[in-house]
Amino acid sequence: MIIKGIAASLPSRVVTNDDMIEMIREQSTEFDGDLEQTLATTKRLLEKSGLQERRWCDRHELPIDHVAMAADKALAASYLQKNHIELLIFVGVGRGFLEPGNSHMIANALGFDKAQCFDIVDACMSWVRAMHLVDNFFKNGGYRNALIINAEFNTHSGGPLYPHNLNLKKREQLAHTFPSFTIGEAATATLLIPSEPDNFEFYFSTRPDLSDLCTIPLHGYDGFCHPTDKIGKNGVMQFTSYGLDLHNESQEEIVKVFKKMTAKDDIRIIFTHASSKMEWEKFGKQIGLEDKLYHIYPKKGNLVSASVPAAIHHAITNKSLCRGDKVALWVGSAGMSYNFTSLTY
Q: What is the rounded (10 degree) CA torsion for 92, 94, 96, 101?
């Protein structure tokens, strides 16, 4: 399998750390304690993580606009037209529908009228899971092409995280709410074709015992799990994430999954999940490859399942990535799940 075309479309509103602090201040009208001290801590943590700004939809922008732009750019790298696409997979957390699959709505809105459609939901690992699945589909002769789309638009005004998670009532909330302040927005589209069947090498591992560290529960969720005091700490349909615990608990497993890779010496660039520049640099130092990490987190924030494809698009655009380069994908995700993948672009 090879990546025939890949594109990202990011919204226009730039939200700096100062902007974020001001929004939290405006929303936190019932704060119990020293709000200004908590805001100073929040800003210091944002800066320490390596974050400077993130991009959100402005009032004139819709997520579907950015999905359309990303899809058109990805297809432009080939002769393929929309009616040639045989498989369309929508991935990630951001979505407009639980039923039907968001893929069907995207296909209808954008004119992919011949594509088979379904969704994959696996938090920030969703895009990599879809890549792995498509690779296996191709090896079995199931499809001649596939398009993977995500639309991570969760934080703009009117989005599912706004303004609920900006409303702090006490300092202790930072432990399970701080990651909300790092989220950016983006749509990506990845066009794949079944050439070079041995190009991709995937390795995964999972730690389901850590599944309560990062959650967005639905109504009635407690009937589908063993409830803990961490799940749904910010409420039903809201984002709860123990960011420090996520990274600390991941250190051993994220290095272990890297060590499964057979050929590491010729890797030129490693694209990581954009959850924190500081934490991924720590992981990179553990394997001695921190100089090969490609970071979009400082200027784009955490793009959820769009992090890696958006980073690849960014690297192509600024000519950091060229055809024939050996690259790797390195992702940790809620679940918890971990992946290291190598390929030649």
A: 0
